[in-house]
Amino acid sequence: MGNKQTIFTDEQLDAYQCFFYCRLHGRYHELAPHLVPMDYTNDPECKLPLALIVNMPELKENPFRNRIVESFSEDGMGNLSFNEFVDMFSVLSEMAPRELKAIYAFKIYDFNVDNYLCKEDLEKTLNKLTKEELTPEEVELVCEKSIEEADLDGDNKLSFADFENMITRAPDFLSTFHIRI
Amino acid sequence: MPPKKKSHAAVEVDDVGMEVDAVSEDDSEEEARRKTKNRRAKAQRKPKRVSDDEEEEEEEDEAPKRKARKKKRKPQDSDEEEDEEDNRSVKSKSSKASRKKAAKEESDEESEDDKKKKKNGGKAVSKKGKEEQNDKKKGNAKGSGGKNKGGEKDKKKKNGNSSSSSDDDEESMSEGEMAALKEEVEEKKKLIATLRNKPWRMQRRLIQLKEAQEFVEKFEGALGKGKGRKWYAYKVMMTKKLIKFKRDFENFKTACIPWERKIKEVESHFGSSVASYFIFLRWMYGLNLVLFGFMFGLVVLPEILMGLPYGSLPRKTVPREEQATAMDYAVLFDFNGYCKYSFLFYGFYNSDRMIGVLKFRLPLSYLLVGVGIFGYSLMVVIRTMARNANEGGDGAEEGQFTFSWKMFTSWDYLIGNPETADNKYASITTSFKESIVDEQENQKDENIHLRRFLRVLANFLILCSLGGSGFLIYFVVKRSQDFAERDNDELSWFEKNEVEFVMSLLGLVCPPLFETIAELEDYHPRIALKWQLGRIFALFLGNLYTFLFALFDEVTAKLEKEKSIKNETIWALNAYYANYSSFYNTTDVPPPDVHPADVIRGPCWETGVGIEFVKLIVSDMQVTYLTILIGDFVRAVIVRFLNYCWCWDLEAGFPSYGEFDISGNVLGLIFNQGMIWMGAFYAPGLVGLNVLRLLTSMYYQCWAVMSCNVPHERVFKASRSNNFYMGLLLLVLFLSLLPVVYTIMTLPPSFDCGPFSGQEKMYDVVMETIENDLPSFIGNIFTYATNPGLIMPAVLLMVLAIYYLNAVSKGYQQANLDLKRKMQMARDEEKNRRNNKDSTNQVMKDLEALLPNKSLIPPPTEEDELEVPDVVVEKSSKSPKIKPGAVANGKGVNLQKEVSLAASNPRGPVTRAPGPRGGNARGPQPGPEKGRGRSAR
């Protein structure tokens, strides 16, 4: 990293591999060079707002970018501290296990944050996925079918158990729910 | 990290290590422990403060004792247990307290705080674990004694042990401690390894990690588990590298697939059905490349490199009378002139048995390649079909979670490129639309009789039109034969080109007609496409038939002409020899010195056939490309730009943009390939031409589709296996195999051109080779093999094998279906079981509704019925007094009816058995009721 050496305490470096950590921090720092300090010895409190993070090239094209950032932020508003930032990319990394990814995928798709994927959530997901090119009837049909397929307890919305049951059998969930940085 | 402290800790630990070393040389475990302790001392960056040191010291204290107790341990086992029991009961309280004190002096660490709790917990657990281990060991040693001790007791015991510090107890404990510690460390390691998997916030994870790491670092050393650390790191690194390499390799492999990106792009906008055409085209291209390789490498190249050059032989020279125009564009474009006498066609090849220094047997190679092309194609097509069949599915998705998977896993989070993202949006939308079409098809409730009638009607209509066009073709061909006998001049232009005209007209009119008729059938678009393909295929067969018919006429004509020319030349040659010998009076006659261009030559029907095929391919290509240019491109341009100044909406209204014609394009491709197969034998250059055609077609059509076409109205999912296309291709392959094999086996080759000139039949080259060049036993084998007595059983065997395999595959299919059904049932069952609300389960609800629900034959109804009989009884009791009893009776009946009707109101909530039965069941009831009523009275 040349002159832009980031300083962490030993523990922090212990906690994560230096390489990964430094690179991530580089990216984090890049987003807002004036806000993020290079020196991490005394755990400075700094958070980046959602608008900045969403503009990363890795997230820029993602229809769920706001939801991703929001679900990883502690306040739910999309302000990420560095730790949360690392968290986000570690969950989305290749090495993260399926269960963990499923949890966060559930959070991401849960637009109204009620721990259930109800019809409105599905509609929003679908509209984001298709850029609202489906007719309302088609959207209705798709949402109904999805719920019908995955809903095991018959409450007309998907709980996490339903979601996990469905997503663990998806063949390409692991390969698509994955960001390289 | 204060360095002082570290060094202090290190020194201390080193001391300890030495001490241990001195004490326990006989114990391997001890040894390991010592070693790792040393290592730990080095590795440890952050020595723990008070508690850690304390703990270490504790351990160190234990170490010396261990040695002594080793010997004593066995004899004292039995006593031990009793002691333990005593200890347990007596010292339970005190031991707890003492342990607490001993373990943790920092009482503040007992707080709820995650971090500290963890630490404490870790230690506590470790101790407990140690004790458990301890016990287990003892138990094992004793046999059965120690096994049933509860954890609580163990703890007490241990504490008791430690406080009482009896030698034996101390010893076994520390050994058990070791194992427990190991376990604990393992646990922590697992925690570290799986920390990523915990859905915690980063802050919490970091804390946990730090603790776990510290713990492991501290105790790992004690257990000799730390030596793999570097190795482990190395392994992790290598795995990552391997993963990365694999990924790159995958990417590379994908990048190597030609046109993958183009096709994906088309697929994302036009759906898999259109993409299936392009995939088929790509497959075809690959096949043709291989065929081209065979043809070019084994036939064309050897002849060009090693054979005689142009102009050396009559067959390689343009005849004198044609030479003037041989280079004209029009002539060349008709593949006459120089083209005709080039390596592109059959006639160019020399009949020398071996050519060049390599003694390459060109005629043999020519024949084998000609036949081998068919063999290879057959093999590849069948293999592909088999593989596709394994991939299975006719495109309909049978997965349980079609829509949910599409919804939640279709977006690829890796996409960071706006263009790719746009494509992905399009492809997701398309795939949703495809699934929606499937779903709508599933949900369609139809009038089965009407549908059946319409389908039969549609098939009837199409059969009629097919028959009609077949007759038309037959009629026109017959007429053209008549015309052929007449003089060319008295025929009009129309009469000359009648066949072509009719054929193209049919080709133009019929497919849209079929499509219109197919609307009646209302099939799923995927199935409709298959029907459409089949029907147009039948139509095009007529095309093929006329073409072959004309060709065979031509061939027979040429054969006759050739016969006369052959006789003429032989006669002329004989005359020449006779004259020469009589004139010079010698028998040693030199061959006539005629320039190759002037030699009389036959028509060479093979080259003629080859030219026909090449012409056909070229004209077909032209037509296709022009159609695309005009029908799609010009149309799109007009629609797009004239729309600004037109009186109706061109884009949405009449001309609109074109849709991609899947069936037409696929069939065009298939029939084109048929031509190639047929023609390749007579025109070796044809394969190369076709490769070029497919290549340009790929780019051109991709461009045309992306720029001028709109997606189908109902985008449907293509069958994953292109097996229907492949099946048609196989059929065409078989059909085109017939004429070629027929000519090879029966027609005599031309006497003065081509690799088989001078032979009776083309396959004679094979015979010749077998006789002359191969050892005699192979010839024998060949004779045996061609013996009908051997061939018949072989055929029979094959038929039987086919029958058997067919039966087996049917059995598997059945089993497959059964299993699928079972899976479906299991899934439904699971769903039902989880559905504790019966409102969602229709079947259960119905069943319940059918139960004779006793609680719902309530007292109120009984009262009603009681009342009714009362009335009736009253009336009947009155009736004897009053004369007109019939009226009263009628009234009574009426009343009863009313009541029963009201009771069995079907509109009410379903609370009992359905209407009619309810009525019946209730019918007889009034009787006894009445009786009771009476008796009550």
UniProtKB/TrEMBL annotation, chain A:
Its main location: membrane. One of its GO terms (biological process) is calcium ion homeostasis. Keywords: Calcium, Cell membrane, Cell projection, Cytoplasm, Magnesium, Membrane, Metal-binding, Repeat. One of its GO terms (cellular component) is sarcolemma. One of its GO terms (molecular function) is magnesium ion binding. It is found in: Cell membrane, Sarcolemma; Cell projection, Cilium, Photoreceptor outer segment; Cell projection, Stereocilium; Cytoplasm. Pfam families: EF-hand_7. The keyword Cell membrane applies. It comes from the Eukaryota. Residues 97-132, 138-173 form the EF-hand domain. PANTHER family: CALCIUM AND INTEGRIN BINDING FAMILY MEMBER 2, CALCIUM AND INTEGRIN-BINDING FAMILY MEMBER 2. This is Calcium and integrin-binding family member 2. It comes from Sphaeramia orbicularis (orbiculate cardinalfish).
